[in-house]
Specification:
The complex is a heterotrimer of chains A (292), B (421) and C (273). With 292 residues, chain A is an all-alpha fold. Chain A contains 13 helices and no strands. Chain A is globular. The termini of chain A are far apart. The relative contact order of chain A is 0.13. Chain B has 421 residues and is of the alpha/beta class. In chain B, α2 runs antiparallel to α14 and α17 runs antiparallel to α18. Chain C is mainly α and 273 residues long. Chain C has a single domain, classed as Orthogonal Bundle (MetI-like fold). Helices cover 71% and strands 0% of the residues of chain C. In chain C, 50% of the residues are buried. The chains are: A mainly alpha (292), B alpha/beta (421), C mainly alpha (273). At the A-C interface, α1, α4, α5, α6 and α8 of A face α1, α3, α4, α5 and α9 of C.
Chain lengths: 292, 421, 273
């Protein structure tokens, strides 16, 4: 068998699977988003109507859509920098030559990443309980009033941000740690010989060296944050008063709760468009910064 | 060293196993809430009477049941029969998911249509055909703390809205700012719907084509409902934020609660015994006197795609036997659908059931429109936003009509198409 | 270089971070051994007064959670096996077997990474419905058959296989399949373990797709059943914690045992360009 034919045969199963279970559905989703496919259509396909871009326009008229966009953006804008900051901070701590028991700490800090999100979300529901939760108990020690984390519309999303940071910071920590370890030691020595203090070293050696990795990490983290679903589903069911409805949650409810599949597909593509847009913007910014 | 062949064989075997569904020789029966919990108990006798026939009961929480039934329909994974809220029947009939039962009922010795109240039978009829056999009847009434009401100076439950408001205010004055008089959970739409039904006007206009939220009746109901929160008579929370509804009722966090017959059983199970003589039920007060309530209840329905329809209907017949209905009542507090089941000791004797008996003579149906569940959910969401101050009360009716009209758009299209317009 | 204060601060900070990270998990375990109702008291307890296995017994005896444990195990194992089969062969092909359009096809695949998987879920559900695979294990496995990330991972590693070894084997007359199985796979062992660990963990923890495609308790996986239980039993804290422990413990142990491979997988995808 010639290598080239072998090549196709070896790659075929995976390519076929990707074509059938990924590419076809994506195209189908695009088509579906131009119809009003709903529960009536599930009963009888003849009840489908082609509506062009009407689903997208209708989305713009729905207050819940804008609410979902706002909630999702809030989560991204607050959660991503916070998460990366914590990751960078812990990576720096682990990287420090003064740190002991690095293996243990690295494992401990990474542990939440591998836990099942649905399960830890359930745990956090109780930790965040207004009366019996340990978070509020801790707040009472600091002399602060208890917060109705999941019941107060203004605190529900911040609570989810906290959970998300706790769960995911370990992932970027490992990546940034590898990046820190890859910085050549002579850069640090040269800076120290020049008399630079710790702060200056951080600003002029560490960050620039890490910049490409920070960019990639931000992109990945942002992409993940846009897809927030499990936490609102498990903890708040989109409430209170729709304050934790995210774009993906909206898609799930429209699609799998009410079976307005046409509208839900439109939501999915809007999400995709936003993620694509943000990635392109960030890549553009990075190129500009890198060129400097 | 694992052999390639061994690995492939194992994978293939696992794959084959993966494609097989759950056993084909069992009846799949979906039941909700407490009914689901006791169903297995009830069915032991049925299984004994029908050797070789096994019943797999899948218990669904009420909060997810509607969603799961729709999902099952969409995924071609419906059970053989299911307990269904009778407000859901029109929706599933529109989807052509249910099996018409007229001929089976006619040929059945067990299910006697004359033994059911006409109103109840009606809720199970869509387009003139029978799609469900009523299992139990259900409506919403007041559950209240008699002792706390007496302390506030009243010996009898309220008969109309004004009286109710006075009583609630009196209780609130006595129990103080940390406690409330009435629980209206923000994650339930039933209380609001019940109050609106009392106005006597249709909830949707024009054969269910448009919302009727901008009607004067809704405006009156909205004002009454909101006044409960504005006057600090009801807490602005959902039932999930209470740690435990029964504990809170026992400790007097609220004195009035609007709920259904299953609470009779739950109260007996979960409240401390000392509280038993202190609570009572009463029919809902209406705007000008005793008011209407929701014509609820659950039915047993067969799915079209079932491959065990005769056996499934035998199960329906079993659950419709008067003795079994009474046993069901004893286990859950749910009121039997058959009149003859009311005769025997049990439902007729229980003082708490009397309020239900009375209320059942004044029940009204919600619109028999497939989209109703979704519209009711929007009602609940908008109400929550108004209570939390995110939407002004004056904008609620318009917002609800906009949402309802949008949801009903496809229905209008389908109705027009059917009419040939 | 002795800097005792700085050293103390760094390690203290790490300790604090570790405490914050591990505390919820520790409380989860602790509460799972509390008596029913014990966790809903004020002040909230950190340790059970009299540790009991009652919650676990309830989960296994009354809720039959062993079934869902078996489901999760079964689906995750099968997903791992299938994923390995599909991704290893494709990754190797993209790395070492020359065929027309290989590079362009690979870049196209990488482009597919930008599309979020949720876009596919709705039509995929309808597709599986037509095939009769909704509410079956097979339905849950479909997204795990082949992944672009998996192929990428294998390819990166397979690129390091020296071409001369392959040429030599070919000159000896060995067929491509034989070469793959006896020469390449042993060299790929580390990445096989990595991919296996990543797939198993990913599949075990997966939530949205199993939620959509598995509707009956009998075939559902642990995360889905836990979410369902948490809605019904929102009052039963201790029971929920026991369920969470059962869900989280296996993957945590797997991770602890195979950390090296997991972390490598994480880095291979990210560090190298």
């Amino acid at each position: 068998m010639r290598p080239s034919r072998a090549g196709w045969l070896f790659a075929a199963p995976a390519l076929v699977a990707i074509a059938v279970f990924f590419v076809v559905p994506v195209v189908a989703a695009l088509l579906m988003s131009t119809t009003d496919f709903d529960i009536y259509a599930l009963a009888d396909l003849r009840n489908v109507r082609f509506v062009g871009l009407l689903n997208y326009l209708r989305l713009l008229e729905r207050p819940l859509f804008w609410r979902a966009l706002f909630n999702t953006f809030f989560f991204v804008v607050v959660g991503v920098p916070l998460s990366i900051a914590v990751s960078l901070g812990t990576a720096l701590l682990l990287h420090s030559p003064l740190a002991r028991l690095k293996g243990f700490f690295r494992t401990a800090l990474f542990a939440p990443v591998v836990t099942t999100l649905a399960a830890v979300a359930v745990v956090w529901i109780f930790l965040l309980h207004a009366r019996y939760g340990l978070f509020n108990y801790g707040l009472s020690f600091l002399g602060l009033h208890p917060i109705d984390w999941l019941g107060d519309p203004h605190w529900a999303m911040p609570a989810i941000v906290l959970l998300s940071v706790w769960k995911n910071f370990g992932y970027n920590m490992i990546i940034l740690l590898a990046g820190l370890q890859a910085i050549p030691g002579d850069l640090y020595e040269a800076a120290q010989l020049d008399g630079a203090g710790a702060g200056a070293i951080f600003r002029h050696v560490t960050i620039p060296s890490l910049a490409p990795m920070l960019l990639m990490v931000s992109l990945l983290t942002m992409s993940g944050h846009f897809q927030l679903f499990a936490e609102p589903y498990v903890m708040t069911q989109g409430g209170p008063a729709e304050h934790t409805v995210t774009v993906l949650y909206l898609m799930y409810e429209d699609g799998f709760k009410w079976w307005s599949l046409g509208s839900a597909s439109a939501v999915a593509f809007v999400l995709f468009a936003f993620m694509l847009g943000f990635s392109l913007i960030q890549a553009r910014v990075a190129r500009r910064v890198g060129a400097r | 060293m694992w052999s390639r062949r061994g690995f492939l064989r194992a994978t293939a075997g696992l794959c084959a196993a993966a494609c097989v569904r759950t056993s084909e020789r069992a009846l799949r029966f979906w039941a909700m809430g407490r009914e689901g919990e006791v169903a297995t108990q009830l069915l032991r006798v049925f299984e004994r009477e029908n050797p070789g026939l096994r019943v797999e009961v899948e218990q669904l929480p009420w909060s997810a049941a509607h969603e799961k039934l729709l999902t099952a329909f969409a995924g071609d994974a419906t059970p053989d029969l299911a307990q269904m809220g009778n407000t859901w029947l029109p929706e599933f009939v529109a989807l052509d998911a249910l099996e018409p039962l007229d001929s089976r009922i006619r040929g059945s010795g067990q299910v006697d249509p004359a033994d059911y109240d006409l109103g109840i039978v009606d809720t199970n009829q869509v387009d003139g055909r029978q799609y469900g056999v009523p299992w139990y009847v259900d409506t919403r009434v007041l559950f209240y703390r008699r002792d706390l009401l007496e302390l506030a100076g009243y010996g009898a439950p309220p008969r109309d809205w004004d009286e109710w408001l006075r009583m609630l205010s009196a209780i609130e004055e006595r129990v103080g700012p940390e406690r409330y008089a009435l629980l209206l959970p923000l994650n339930e739409y039933e209380p609001m719907v019940a109050l609106w039904l009392q106005q006597g006007e249709p909830l949707l206009r024009d054969d269910g084509r448009y919302g009727n939220f901008r009607s004067p009746g809704f405006a009156r109901t909205l004002a009454f409902y909101l006044s409960m929160f504005e006057r600090h008579l009801a807490p602005s929370i959902g039932s999930n934020e209470l740690s435990n509804v029964w504990n809170e009722f026992a400790r007097g966090y609220f004195s009035f609660y609007i709920s259904g017959p299953w609470q009779i059983g739950e109260f007996k199970r979960r409240l401390p015994p000392a509280l038993e003589p202190l609570w009572a039920t009463a029919p809902l007060p209406g705007p000008h006197g005793p008011g209407a309530s929701i014509a609820g209840g659950a039915s047993l329905a067969l799915f079209r795609r079932s491959r065990h329809k005769p056996a499934a209907f035998r199960l329906v017949e079993f659950l419709s036997r008067p003795e079994v209905q009474q046993q069901f009542y004893r286990l859950t507090g749910n009121l039997p659908a058959r009149r003859s089941a009311w005769a025997a000791p049990g439902p007729a004797q229980d003082p708490h059931a009397l309020a239900f008996r009375d209320q059942l003579t004044r029940v009204r149906s919600v619109p028999k429109v497939p989209e109703w569940e979704r519209i009711a959910t929007e009602l609940r969401l908008v109400m929550e936003k108004v209570v939390r101050g995110e939407i002004p009360a004056s904008g609620a009716a318009g917002e609800l009509d906009a949402r309802a009209d949008r949801i009903l758009e496809k229905r209008r299209f389908m109705l027009d198409r059917r009419a040939g317009r | 270089m002795r800097r005792p204060i700085a050293s103390l601060m760094v390690n203290l900070a790490l300790l604090l971070a570790a405490l914050v990270t591990l505390f919820p998990l520790a409380w989860m375990v602790s509460a799972s051994f509390m008596a029913p109702g014990e966790a809903s008291t004020y002040p909230p307890p950190m340790l059970p007064q009299a540790p009991t296995l009652a919650n676990y017994r309830l989960l296994f005896a009354e809720h039959g959670i062993l079934r869902q444990v078996a489901n999760s195990l079964f689906i995750s194992l099968l997903a791992t096996a299938l994923s390995l089969t599909f991704n290893l062969s494709a990754g190797y092909a993209f790395a070492k077997l020359r065929f027309r359009g290989r590079e362009r096809l690979f870049r196209l695949l990488l482009g597919a990474l930008i599309v979020p998987a949720q876009v596919t879920m709705l039509p995929l559900f309808l597709m599986l419905k037509e095939m009769g695979l909704v509410n079956t294990y097979a339905g849950a496995l479909v997204p795990w058959l082949a992944s672009v990330f998996g192929i990428y991972l294998v390819r990166q590693y397979a690129l390091t296989v020296p071409g001369e070894i392959l040429e030599a084997a070919r000159m000896d007359g060995a067929g491509e399949l034989r070469i793959f199985l006896s020469v390449v796979l042993p060299l790929l062992k580390p990445i096989i373990v990595t991919l296996a660990v990543l797939t198993f963990l990913g599949c075990w923890n997966d939530f949205m797709w199993p939620l959509i495609v598995l509707t009956d308790h009998a075939v559902q996986t642990l995360p889905v059943v836990l979410a369902a239980l948490s809605r019904e039993h929102v009052q039963d804290v201790e029971l929920m914690m026991a369920g969470a422990v059962i869900t989280v413990l296996p993957v945590l142990l797997l991770f602890l045992g195979l950390q090296r491979y997991y972390l490598r997988g994480l880095l291979v995808g990210s560090v190298k360009g």
